[in-house]
Write a structure and sequence with these properties.
The complex is a heterodimer. Chain A is α+β, with helices and mostly antiparallel strands. Chain A has 14 helices and 36 strands. By secondary structure, chain B is mostly helical. The chains are: A alpha+beta, B mainly alpha. The site of zinc ion (ZN) has 6 residues of chain A, from helix 7.
C-alpha cells in the first residue's frame, strides 16, 4: 500500500500456465511455500448495489502441511473492523496521536461480515464451535475481526479439511481500502479467510489493526462474481467465463488464479476497460538483457521476460491519462522483472480507484489500484509512482510474501526502495505533488524536483528516534512513525546497504533473495542470511544498528585547522650534548633569515592540518566498514584517510607543504542514512555564493510576508 | 471620474512622492532584516563552512529536512516569534497608513519624514479603531456570506459523481471569497480616505461615508481596485520570469537577484500607495 494518498491492486493471470517461468530461478529453490497447493478456495458472491450487500458462499479446502495435529482454524473477518467503534481498528484510529480521531464511516455506513453458516463438507454444523477471539491480547476485547472454529476431529499432518461457509457482508462506506460510493464498489479483504498455520506455533492470524496490512497463504482461487448486467468488473486472476441471467438482470464472471494469497475485485457501471500487451522483446533490448545477465552472473536466458496481458480499468474522466498508466506499468514490469525475476502470472490488472471509495494505492495479487486526479501536471509523476509502487508489491508482498503484520518493512520498505529505483531509472526526478485548492501548485510556481530517495531520507532521519523499523505494525508510536519508518527509513537503509556493498553484489543479493523466497513467507533473518551469504561477510551489525534500534547515524567533521609548523618551538633543548634556549626573539630572527634565503634552512614552510572527526549519532560502524575522509589541499591535491568510527571522535594530523582547503567524510555519499549531511564537510573559507543567495531569498520571503500583513491593516 | 483617469492620476501622485516610497521601503527592509536575522545565522552557521553550501538550493528539501530535525525544539519558538513579528508589523503599518494617506492626499506637498510622521500620529487612533471595526466587518460579511455559499455548495459536492464538481465548486468558493475580500478591503480603504478627506472623527461615520460613496458607483470603484490588482499580478509575473532567468550563482548573479527581489518589494510597496492614491483621487472627485 502506498502510505497516504493512493492505493493499488494487482491482477494476475493463471499462474499454472506460467509456472515454467519458475524454473528460471535456477539460482534458488523457488519451491512453492509450504501449504501453497494445499489451500483451495471456491467462492460465489453476488453484489446487491442498492443495499450495498454481498451474499457469499465459500468452499475452503485446507491441507495440513505441518507435523502438528491441528484442532482448529482461525479465520480473518476483516470487515468487522468497520462494524462499530469497539473494533481494534476503530479504537486505534481514535487513539492515534497523529491525524487521530474517529475513523467512523461517513453517513454511518458501517460495514461487517456475518458468517451465517459454517459446516464441514459432510454437513457437520460447526457454528456451535465458532467464536470470535482476540489473538493480539486483551486490549480490544470486542474486536470481531478474528474467529476460531473448532474441528470435531483434529486435522492430522497431511490431512485435509473441507469447509463450507455462507456469509453476508455489508460493504462499508469507505474507511480503509474497501468501500462504496454511489454504485462504485471496491471489494478487498471481503471473504472469511484462514490465517497462516505455522508449525509448532499455531495459527498466525492477527486482528485488523489500523496500521497493518495482511498475511495469508498461497492458494488456488476460483471466484464467481455476480453483479447487475452492464457493470464493469475488474478482479484478481483471469476471467475464464461470463454468463448472464436475463431474468435476474445479472452477469456472473468466473475468475481463476493459482498461487496467490488474496483476491480482490471492483465494479462500476461507468468504467472503461482497456487491454494492452506487455511484449517483452519490444520493451527490453538485447543489450539490456546482456547487461542484466552479466550483472547478475546468470545465463541470458534466465533474465528473459515473459509477455504479460495488462488490463486497465479507468474512470471515464481520466481517459486522457490512459497512456500515462500503461507507460508506468510497462516500466515497472520491465525493471522489476529484469532485476528481481520474471513476472510469473499471465495478467496484471490496474484499477483507477473509483471516486470516494478510498481504495487507491493498494496492492492485491495480480491486481492493484493506482490513483490520479483530473488535473495533473507533467512534472509531478503522480500516477506513475503509485502504479510502479503498487505493481511492485506484486513482488514484495505478492510473491515474496512476508507477514505484513509483523514485518511490514519487508514489503513496504523493499518496495519503496524498488519504486525509487525504477522511478529514477525510467522517469528521473519529479516535482512534489503539492496542490492548491485541488490545482497542481506547479501550475503557478516552480516546484523543486527531487529524487524519491531524497524524500525517503528526510522522512527517515526525522523518525529514527521513534521506533525501530522492525516493530510490529500496530506497535508504532503513531501512524507517522509507522509510515516513515516502515516505508522510507527502511528504503533509505536499503539504499545505504546498496551503496556500501556496490551494485554487482547488491543486485545478486536482491535477485537471490527474491527468487529464493518467491511463493514463500520470508523473514528478516532470511534476508540477512542472503546478504551475508552473497556479500561473503557478516553484516548482522548493519541490521542491528540501523533497523533493530532507534539509533541515529551521523558522522561529521567537527573541526579543520591548518597551521604553519613553526621553524623552532620555544624552550630549553639538549642538542648534541649542549643546552640551547630558544626565545621568541631568537625564533623571529631565524624566521626572518629563512624568509630572506628560503633555499637554506628547512626550505619550504610546512603545515600541520588537523581534522577532528566525530560520531554525533548513536549508530556505530562495525565489521569491515570504515568512515572515509577526503582532505583537499589548496594546491588541488587530495588525501584519503579512513577511520573505523567505533569511538566518539578521532583526530587526524597531516603534515604537508600546503594548507588544507576542506575535509569531507563519506565523499562518495555511501551513507545516505546520515542525518546531517551539512556537517559531513568543513572548509577553511566561510562564505558561499549559494548560501548568500539563500539568505537574500530568505530576507525577500520575510519582506513579502510582512508586506502582506501590512497591506491588510 | 473615469476609472483609468483615477488610476493615472493616482500614479502621478505617487511618482511625485518618491520619499514616501523610500520611507516605507526602509521600514520594511529594517523590520524584515531583524526578523530574518535568526534564520540567516542558522543558514550561515550550518552551511557557511560546509561543502553542502556550494550546491544548496533555495528550496532544498534535504537541507530543510536536516534543519527541521536539528531545530525542532526551537520551531514553536520561531513560529511564535514570526507571528508576534507579524502582529507588531501590522500595528506599525496601521501607524504608517496615516502617513501614506496623509501625504498622498497632500497632493503637491513633499513627503518629508516630519510631515509623514505627523500624519501617522494624527490618524493613528482612528485607524486602529477602523482596523478593529474592519475585522468585525470582515467576519460579518465574509463569515456569514461564505457560510451561506458553503451551505449551498456542500450538498452539491456531496452528491458529486466525479471529482470535477467538488473541484469546480471549491475553486468557485475560493474565487467568491477573494472577490468578497477585495470588496471589504476596498471599503476599508475608502473609510481610511474618508477619515482624512472628510476630517471625520468617528470611524463608524467614516465607514458610512465610504459605503454611501460606493453605493452609487460600486462597479467603477471596484474596477479601479481590480485593475490595480491586475497590475500587481502582471508585475509579479514579470518578476518571476526575470528572476527565473538568472543562472547559476556568480557574484554578479547573486547581486542581480538581490536587486531584482528588492525592486519587486519596492514595486509592491508602490502598488500599495497606488491603491490609496487612485482611490483617493476617485473619492475626492465625488465629494461626500
Ligand atoms: Zn506499499
Amino acid at each position: 500500500m502506498k502510505k497516504s494518498i493512493v492505493r493499488a491492486v494487482l491482477m494476475l493471470g493463471a499462474a499454472l500456465a506460467v509456472l515454467p517461468a519458475l524454473s528460471i530461478a535456477a539460482q534458488a529453490p523457488a519451491a512453492p511455500a509450504a501449504g501453497a497447493p494445499g489451500l483451495r478456495y471456491e467462492i460465489w458472491v453476488e453484489l446487491d448495489p442498492a443495499g450495498q450487500m454481498l451474499a457469499g458462499k465459500e468452499e475452503i479446502v485446507w491441507t495440513n502441511p505441518t507435523k502438528d495435529t491441528v484442532p482448529d482454524m482461525l479465520l480473518h473477518l476483516y470487515w468487522n473492523a468497520f462494524k462499530n467503534e469497539a473494533s481494534a481498528f476503530m479504537r486505534e484510529a481514535a487513539a492515534e496521536t497523529m491525524f487521530g480521531g474517529s475513523a467512523a464511516p461517513e453517513d454511518e455506513g458501517w460495514g461487517w461480515v456475518d458468517v451465517t453458516d459454517i459446516r464441514l463438507a459432510d454437513g457437520t454444523d460447526l457454528k456451535p464451535a465458532f467464536q470470535f477471539v482476540t489473538p493480539d491480547g486483551p486490549d480490544h476485547p470486542d474486536d470481531q475481526t478474528v474467529a476460531r472454529v473448532l474441528f470435531p476431529v483434529p486435522v492430522r499432518p497431511g490431512e485435509s479439511v473441507h469447509l463450507r461457509i455462507e456469509f453476508r457482508s455489508k460493504v462499508p462506506r469507505t474507511v480503509a481500502r474497501s468501500g462504496y460510493y454511489r454504485n462504485s464498489f471496491f471489494i478487498g479483504q471481503w471473504f472469511p479467510k484462514p490465517g497462516v498455520y505455522e508449525e509448532g506455533k499455531g495459527w498466525n492470524c492477527h486482528a485488523y489493526h489500523q496500521n497493518s496490512e495482511f498475511f495469508a497463504d498461497f492458494a488456488d482461487f476460483t471466484v464467481h462474481i455476480t453483479v447487475p448486467r452492464g457493470y464493469v468488473v475488474g478482479s484478481s486472476g483471469k476471467a475464464v467465463d461470463t454468463r448472464t441471467d436475463e431474468s435476474a438482470g445479472t452477469a456472473t464472471t468466473t475468475f481463476r488464479q493459482s498461487m496467490v494469497h488474496d483476491f480482490a475485485w471492483m465494479t462500476d457501471p461507468r468504467y472503461l476497460r482497456i487491454e494492452r500487451d506487455f511484449v517483452a522483446d519490444r520493451e527490453v533490448t538485447p543489450q539490456e538483457y546482456k547487461e542484466t545477465a552479466d550483472l547478475l552472473g546468470l545465463p541470458p536466458d534466465e533474465v528473459r521476460l515473459p509477455d504479460v496481458k495488462m488490463i486497465l480499468l479507468i474512470a471515464p474522466e481520466h481517459r486522457s491519462q490512459i497512456e500515462r498508466h500503461f507507460n508506468a506499468l510497462r516500466a515497472a514490469l520491465k525493471y522489476y522483472g529484469l532485476w528481481y525475476g520474471p513476472y510469473p502470472y499471465e495478467t496484471v490488472t490496474m484499477v483507477d480507484p473509483p471516486f470516494r471509495t478510498g481504495s487507491g494505492g493498494m496492492e492485491y495479487p495480480t491486481l492493484f489500484t493506482a490513483g490520479t486526479q483530473v488535473l495533473t501536471s507533467r512534472d509531478v509523476q503522480s500516477p506513475e509512482m503509485v502504479i510502479i509502487h503498487e505493481f511492485g508489491h506484486g513482488y514484495w508482498y505478492g510473491l515474496a510474501a512476508n507477514n505484513e503484520f509483523e514485518a511490514a518493512w519487508l514489503d513496504e520498505g523493499f518496495n519503496t526502495y524498488s519504486t525509487t529505483r525504477v522511478m529514477a531509472k525510467a522517469f528521473g526526478p519529479g516535482a512534489f505533488g503539492f496542490r492548491f485548492n485541488g490545482l497542481p501548485l506547479d501550475w503557478f510556481v516552480r516546484v523543486p524536483k527531487v529524487f524519491d530517495y531524497e524524500t525517503n531520507r528526510v522522512a527517515a532521519i526525522n523518525t529514527v528516534r521513534y521506533d525501530p523499523v522492525t516493530a510490529w505494525s500496530w506497535e508504532f508510536y503513531n501512524r507517522g512513525s509507522y509510515g516513515a519508518n516502515v516505508y522510507m527509513r527502511a528504503a533509505t537503509v536499503l539504499s545505504t546497504l546498496e551503496n556500501l556493498l556496490g551494485e554487482p553484489v547488491w543486485s545478486r543479493i536482491m535477485r537471490t533473495y527474491h527468487m529464493r523466497y518467491r511463493f514463500r513467507h520470508p523473514t528478516e533473518a532470511d534476508f540477512a542470511g542472503v546478504v551475508n551469504e552473497i556479500a561473503g561477510k557478516d553484516m548482522t551489525w548493519f541490521f542491528d544498528e540501523l533497523l533493530e534500534e532507534t539509533r541515529a547515524f551521523d558522522y561529521g567533521v567537527a573541526a579543520l585547522t591548518s597551521v604553519e609548523v613553526p621553524v623552532q618551538v620555544r624552550g630549553v633543548f639538549d642538542r648534541n650534548g649542549a643546552r640551547e634556549e630558544w626565545t621568541e626573539k631568537k625564533i623571529e630572527d631565524l624566521e626572518a633569515a629563512e624568509a630572506k634565503a628560503p633555499d637554506e634552512g628547512r626550505g619550504k614552510a610546512l603545515y600541520r592540518t588537523t581534522v577532528v572527526l566525530r560520531r554525533f549519532g548513536e549508530a556505530r560502524l562495525a565489521g569491515d566498514a570504515q568512515v572515509e575522509v577526503l582532505i583537499r589541499f589548496k594546491d588541488g591535491t587530495t588525501e584519503t584517510r579512513t577511520w573505523d568510527g567505533r569511538d566518539r571522535w578521532t583526530r587526524l594530523v597531516i603534515v604537508s607543504p600546503v594548507e588544507a582547503e576542506s575535509a569531507q567524510v563519506d565523499p562518495r555519499g555511501i551513507w545516505l542514512i546520515d542525518e546531517n549531511l551539512a556537517n559531513n564537510s568543513r572548509s577553511a573559507d566561510g562564505l558561499r555564493r549559494n548560501v548568500v543567495k539563500l539568505m537574500t531569498q530568505l530576507l525577500f520571503t520575510v519582506q513579502n510576508i510582512l508586506h502582506f500583513f501590512g497591506s491588510w491593516s | 471620474m473615469g476609472v483609468f483617469k483615477a488610476i493615472f492620476s493616482g500614479m502621478g501622485t505617487t511618482f511625485r512622492k518618491p520619499r514616501l516610497l523610500i520611507i516605507l521601503y526602509a521600514v520594511n527592509l529594517v523590520f524584515a532584516g531583524l526578523v530574518a536575522l535568526p534564520f540567516l545565522f542558522i543558514v550561515q552557521g550550518e552551511l557557511g563552512h560546509s561543502l553542502y553550501g556550494l550546491n544548496v538550493q533555495p528550496v532544498d528539501l534535504n537541507w530543510i529536512g536536516e534543519a527541521v530535525l536539528k531545530y525542532q525544539a526551537a520551531l514553536p519558538g520561531l513560529a511564535a516569534g514570526l507571528v508576534a513579528a507579524g502582529v507588531v508589523y501590522t500595528v506599525l503599518h496601521i501607524f504608517l497608513n496615516g502617513g501614506i494617506v496623509g501625504r498622498l492626499l497632500d497632493k503637491e506637498g513633499p513627503a518629508s519624514l516630519a510631515g509623514f510622521v505627523a500624519d501617522c500620529g494624527r490618524y493613528f487612533g482612528r485607524y486602529v479603531r477602523l482596523f478593529l471595526v474592519s475585522l468585525v466587518f470582515l467576519v460579518l460579511t465574509l463569515g456569514v456570506f461564505m457560510s451561506l455559499v458553503s451551505a449551498l455548495f456542500k450538498p452539491l459536492s456531496k452528491a458529486a459523481i466525479t471529482e470535477w464538481l467538488p473541484l469546480i465548486l471549491s475553486n468557485l468558493h475560493l474565487l467568491i471569497a477573494l472577490l468578497l475580500l477585495s470588496v471589504v478591503h476596498m471599503t476599508v480603504d475608502y473609510a481610511r480616505i474618508a477619515v482624512a478627506v472628510d476630517g471625520e472623527r468617528k470611524v463608524l461615520k467614516a465607514l458610512r461615508h465610504a459605503l454611501t460613496f460606493l453605493k452609487t458607483r460600486f462597479f467603477r470603484a471596484w474596477a479601479v481596485y481590480l485593475l490595480i490588482v491586475v497590475l500587481t499580478v502582471a508585475g509579479t509575473i514579470v518578476f518571476y520570469v526575470l528572476f527565473g532567468r538568472l543562472g547559476a550563482p556568480s557574484v554578479a548573479q547573486v547581486a542581480a537577484g538581490l536587486a531584482c527581489m528588492q525592486i519587486y518589494i519596492v514595486f509592491r510597496i508602490w502598488v500599495r500607495t497606488l491603491f490609496v492614491a487612485a482611490q483617493a483621487e476617485f473619492y475626492k472627485a465625488h465629494p461626500y
